[in-house]
Design goal:
There is one protein chain. The protein has 421 residues and is α/β, with parallel strands linked by helices. The protein contains 15 helices and 15 strands. The chain has helices at residues 9-19, 33-38, 53-62, 84-96, 145-149, 163-172, 183-186, 188-199, 212-224, 232-238, 248-260, 291-297, 302-307, 309-330, 367-383, and strands at residues 22-26, 43-46, 74-77, 102-106, 123-127, 143-144, 157-158, 268-269, 333-339, 345-352, 357-362, 394-399, 403-406, 412-415, 419-420. The strands form 3 sheets. An 8-stranded mixed sheet has the order 7-13-14-12-11-10-9-8, with helices on both faces. β3, α4 (84-96) and β4 form a beta-alpha-beta unit. α6 crosses α12 (291-297) and α6 packs across α14.
Length: 421
């Protein structure tokens, strides 16, 4: 049996199971939800098992409580295939008052017309993303985000990855099934994921028939505009030569469907207290749950990224944002970005629930770009009104370079392959 690779979500899941009667792990297919859930479950109901599927669905319609029988905690895998189980679980948790009873997994947001109680206070949701570089053993973890929040003065670390390796990690993604494959086979996984998404999974969202070619065109446009605040009009114009009849309404429908499949993972704008009255741009930064989706949609490889550094830069930013989101989640935080009307930007803001925050610029890395990024971070930190909110715990430049260190101006330079939570 393949050895389980620990996830940062493990600790969060354990803690939530002690607080709530049921925990729902959501996220895209192939990201490892079921594998993680099985580490904690004592009995399992697999709703997508073809040998028992029809019988289980029939029982779910007639007597859903029968499917809940089994040693606890009981895993209900891909619960959305039998949404009537939701209310049965909620009722059981309500009736018994017991904690640590059920773990559910779901790769699709249920249809809006499903008659379900919200589950608030009984069933808590946890989002699982594909693996970060630290989880996949591609980061040394010599620099801790948690320690940066605790105001560590000095850092040091040496990345064991070259730029070619970073390009490969962007193209491979964080899909657990790809980690023990050779490089050629590993690059096939995100392409197959994308094909399965477009051909099969999109049909299961809400029963609406969507054009696979049109969906692929929309995903490709999102990929070309990854880590930007591209508007619907921009995406529509970008798809014109492949589909001149597509409307913004249709694009919204496709984006909503992708969100329900947990494929889209946009970064929201951060709105801090500022020293001066400046309009803050609030459009979200467009991102996928994993950078490999964009690489696959562009029909690119790691070698193609090395020939197009502009595209590589955006894909690398998506990789860093994915990892920051995974690390921030384990620290009870979220990731945002900042942009105002003057053009001042900051690629990533990690904001913890206790009010502490840190800012990061993301650069593939050379001396000039790192110098500019450091100046920008300091300029950005000076516009935040620290009489109204906390001073930044750190200013950091995430790079694809070799060494982790602290500059004389206090800005940290950290290779993404040295970072952990």
């Amino acid at each position: 049996m393949k050895k389980y690779m620990p996830r940062l979500l493990d600790d969060i899941l354990e803690k939530r199971m002690k607080i709530y009667g049921a925990v729902l792990i959501i996220g895209p297919k192939w990201c490892g939800k079921s594998t993680t859930a099985k580490q904690y479950a004592k009995s399992v109901l697999e709703l997508q098992n073809p040998r028992t599927r029809e019988n289980n669905l029939e029982i779910a319609n007639m007597r859903p409580d029968l499917l809940l029988e089994g040693e606890k905690p009981r895993l209900i895998d891909e619960w959305q295939d039998a949404p009537m189980l939701w209310d049965a679980i909620r009722y059981d948790v309500d009736n018994t008052g017991l904690k640590n009873q059920y773990i559910l997994t779901g790769s699709i947001t249920p249809r809006d017309d499903e008659p379900m109680h919200s589950g608030t206070g009984r069933i808590i949701r946890l989002l699982m993303r594909p693996m970060s570089l630290y989880e996949s053993n591609d980061s040394t973890g010599s620099v801790s985000l948690s320690e940066l929040f605790d105001s560590v003065i000095d850092i040091k670390g040496v990345s064991n990855k070259e730029l070619e390796d970073i390009a490969y990690l962007c193209a491979r993604g964080g899909w657990p099934s790809s980690l023990d494959l050779n490089k050629g086979d590993a690059l096939i996984v995100p392409r197959d994921y994308l094909d399965s998404l477009i051909i099969n999974d999109i049909k299961t969202v809400d029963g609406t028939v969507r054009n696979p070619n049109r969906l692929r065109t929309v995903i490709r446009s999102l990929s070309r505009n990854i880590c930007t605040t591209a508007s619907l009009a921009t995406i529509k114009d970008d798809t014109f030569y492949n589909d001149s009849t597509i409307s913004e309404k249709t694009i919204v429908d496709y984006l909503n469907a992708l969100s329900k499949l947990y494929v889209i993972d946009d970064v929201e704008a951060w709105c801090p207290k500022l020293r001066s009255k400046t309009d803050i741009r609030t459009s979200a930064k467009r991102c996928f749950i994993d950078p490999s989706i964009a690489v696959a949609a562009l029909r690119a490889t790691d070698k193609d990224l090395l020939k197009d550094f502009k595209t590589f830069g955006f894909i690398f930013e998506a990789l860093c944002l994915r990892d920051l989101k995974v690390y921030a989640q384990s620290l009870d935080g979220d990731v945002f970005f900042y942009r105002d009307k003057s053009g001042l930007e900051c690629d990533a803001i990690v904001h913890l629930k206790d009010g502490r925050w840190g800012a990061a610029e993301i650069k593939l890395g050379n001396n000039d770009s790192i110098e500019l990024a450091a100046k920008n971070l300091i300029k950005f930190s000076n516009v935040v009104d620290t009489s109204e909110m906390n001073k930044p715990s750190f200013l950091m430049i995430l790079t694809a370079t070799k060494y982790a260190y602290r500059r004389e101006d206090g800005v940290y330079v950290v290779p993404i392959t040295c970072l952990k939570n």
